[in-house]
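Ticket reopened. Same input as before:
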Amino acid sequence: MGELCFACDAMLGRLARWLRFAGFDTTFLPDVPDPTVAGQARAEGRWLLTRDRRLAASTGPRVVLLRARTVGEQVAELRARLPLVARPELFFTRCSCCNGSLVELPREAVRDRVPPYVAVHASRFFSCPGCRRVYWPGTHPERITRKLLLWFCS
Ligand SMILES: [Zn+2]
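Engineering reply: fixed in the latest deploy. New output:
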């Protein structure tokens, strides 16, 4: 089995963000009807994550029905079903907004796209090819890393 990848249903936007923080390829299309999301997940070999029992029952074998309401508990449920272990070196390698794989860019390339202080003082810059957001060390507070380690790696 290759790297696990996911499709979150419309109710699991927060979980989708956290899976992306952890480096997992995760789609989240809240404006697309559930059956379409399920069909697309199937076509792309993604595990569909859903809190909707009916949707879970009507989807192929790669589906995980989640019952928990908080992200931490949802990750625990997911890890009870799938061998999900995140690698810290992959943390923050994806755009948390659109799932794009971030690419490193030189300071000159992002100077006009970040606050002036950041343009001068940040050590490295990463950009999303999808939505053009720019990230730098410090974009994600330390508490997010601590939660990722606790939820995905312990
Ligand atoms: Zn993006």
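The mean pLDDT is 94. The pocket of zinc ion is lined by residues 95, 97-98, 100, 128, 130-131, 133 (CB under 6 Å). Please confirm and we'll close it.
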